[in-house]
Amino acid sequence: MNATFASPRRIAALFRAAVFGMCTLVAACGGRTDAPPPIDLGGAGTAPTITRQPVDETVAIGQTAMFSVTASGDATLAYQWQRGGTAIAGATADSFTTPATALADSGAFFTVVVSNGVGSVTSTAATLTVSAIAPVLTITQQPMGVGVVTGAMASFTVAGTCSSGTLGVHWQRSQGGAAFADIAGATAATYGVATTLADNGAQYRAVLDCSGQSATPSSTATLTVTAPGTVTLTPTPVIGLSSGLAVTAQAYGIDQVADGSFVFVSGSQVQRLSADLSIITPVAGAYFAGSADGPAATASFSGAEGVVHDGAGNLFVTDSGNHTIRRIATDGTVTTIAGMAGVSGSADGAGSAARFNNPVGIALGPDGDLYVADTQNHLVRRVTVGGVVTTYAGSTQGYAEGPAATAQFNMPSGIAVASNGDVIVTDFANSRVRRIVRAGNAAGSVETLAGNGTSTAPYPDGVGTAAVIRDPSGIVLRGNTVVLQDLGGLLRQIDLATAAVTTITGARTLGAGYADGPLGAARLGGAGGIALAPNGGYVVATPSGGIATVSAAGDVRTIATARAFGVVPGGTGVLAQMPLALYKQNTVNIPQGVGVDPAGNIVLAEGLENDVRRISPTGAVTLVAGLAGSTGNGVDGTGSAAQFRSIGPSIVSDGAGVLYVADSNAVRRIGTDNAVTTLAGSIATSGALNGLGAAARFSVVAGLAVGPSGDVFACDPNNHAVRRIDAAGNVTTYFGVLGQTGNADGPVATARLNFPSSLAFMPDGSLLVADYGSVRRITPDGSSITTIYTVTGAAAAGKIVLAPDGSIYFGGDVSNLLSHGLYKLAPGASTPTVVVPWDSLGPRLGSDSSVRVNSIDGMALLGPNQLVVLTGGQMITISVP
Q1: By CB count within 10 A, which of 553, 575, 623, 707 is most buried?
Q2: pLDDT tens for residues 784-809?
Q3: How many CA atoms are closer than 13 Å to the CA of 425, on its beta-carbon side?
Q4: What confidence tens digit (pLDDT) does each residue in 250-289 have?
Q5: Residue 649: is the preceding peptide bond cis (ω within 30°)?
Q6: What gap in Å lies between CA 228 and CA 835, rounded to an integer?
Q7: Which residues make Cβ contacts (< 8 Å) with residue 333, sequence separation at least 6?
Q8: How far from chain centre, in Å, is Cα 774?
Q9: Chain-centre distance for alpha carbon 256
Q10: Is the per-residue pLDDT at 219 higher than 80?
């Protein structure tokens, strides 16, 4: 009898076919008879079979839905759930639970692919139906009214349940009959606020919902705030500021890692910018240079330049000052993989036997090796992750094309590796971008991709060598293009197929510096690193500008700056989080300005950094306008696209929330949209001239006030006058004679001002003037002036504020050597009382007789009998009985 031999693999295949045929006939294997058959991948064993298919689900809006499957087969089964045929990230179990559903999810269908080493099978589709029945929300705890003494924290709590979906909470506030408005970020069950007297009578409520449905407001809780029994000095609440986690020095290399965050090098530290661009945290290294390996907190670098990551999450850093290549493991441990710290050279070799000379750029190739721009050796080096170093291309300093071994570079800086292995190099001192063509597993020829070796403005675009690229540095690949920074302050793009060079952003005609704004207005301030960002944009690191985003359209917005304040570690973090740059005792005379807008927000004009920030009643800080550390003749623009020259010492708000700030010899206007315009005067040129807008001249603008008609009044101390600016920017002299000094009272024709420094309007339209040691009042029609108090002894009127009860608060500023404390002149009184005594070591906080202030650098009314004061490098709240 003849027999045919069947292998075990063939027998298994025949068995699976027979079982599948039986299931098809009797539909006995579960699910639907139209389920697709398993795909046999040709391996030994049994491919997956679905024994229980996913079933349709119907849920109410806001609920989750769960789909599951049961399958059998050899070895470990793998699952991948799909929605509409597209894989769902992370859905790799035998069941899948959707997020909270919305009506838009109704009709979606879900399948799952089950696989093993033998084959795979796709389930039948299960359909999701979402019912429009809204979930039931029940508030189980209503917020209660709270009474506190000013300065204390007040908290409100709410609780609720949902029949389906997730409970959401958003607190709202109303005061003085105004409509309830959302409080930014107040989404927890308990909301706390540091109180001021201005909060008295404020009402709070929470709006609760169930996954966005069934929104219901809670009952209203009223806040009662009473004055203290004695004068109280407390720190003004400020939250969200960086504390040492900052851009500590000039930024260079930057790389986006797998979690979406950006790692960058800053001086001798490696730091991380979160994916949402909201906070900077340390990765490894210290403020001071060194060369130590070890844990992140004790490791040190010396002038690190480039950074790149591998698939395992390790970071590789060119430690330029140490002439080494360093690795930062995922746990933060730093090791030196190639080169010897402090020893330069150009030797190939393994580990510490290799030598570099100020390596800068670093990139990871598709072969898993590192490629390094060895700048001062004028070479491109290849480094295995194990630390074996070979010279990949280059010979001696110069410029030459041709074979890799004889080609020449001149200070190669940035480096990137294409998917085909070609290495793209920014040849800094040659003002060219070079390409090292891959030849098998080695370097082939070196050719110039773009740039003609010149560096003459205006750096025209063009094809290949027709373009001028001045000293290119940081480089990154996106698809078939390479994007780089150059020392002309431009961000350039080169098409790798055509060599066409175009400009993404930057300004060819505005000169040096850095500025936010669109293409043609933005200035990147130097050549640094560049990383890809979502939506076709980039994140760039520049030596003078810090960290900035660049949109696909070329709009530049600064995230963080490398300002240092002259302290260690100092620096600034993300712009909204940067430490407040307040005047400090015994430092240079830098003006500061503080004001309060109609919503109760504190607005701070920081003369040390030339920016304006807003502090909400809860202490949250946001940037209003200005770019930290910028100088020059000022730039109009919105938010960080605006620049100031020397802001302070005054910032005020009108009734609509429009801000006016003194900026050198001009008055700048900041709209409610944070758009900055120059209302009047010339930032660059002082003088004594009335006129329209930019034609007018001031000699340093000091105190500001907004009059009943909306006109802005400005102290012009060096011209001994108070000036008036209407809505169109027309400047006239309101009181005094330009260039004539004195302190005579009387009609405007004969009266004179000395050095007016601060202004405040009284309810009847009279204008109070702090005039170098005197408090003076100009009549509502501006026809005459009367001195109502002249300083004798220690009290000096440098800053002045009018309280609702008619009391006048005044104190000195940094320009007045007679500054001794805070004083109050009650209505009808001829002699002021000491509110808070002066102390050269102040301020001293508290509520007893030891409270003190230093020179008062800025002051504004925060609420009834409550002031916010800048003194001794601090911002404090002074509450008066």
Answers
A1: 575
A2: 999 988 865 444 457 899 988 899 99
A3: 34
A4: 778 999 999 999 999 988 889 999 898 888 888 999 878 8
A5: yes
A6: 14
A7: 293, 294, 295, 296, 299
A8: 44
A9: 16
A10: yes
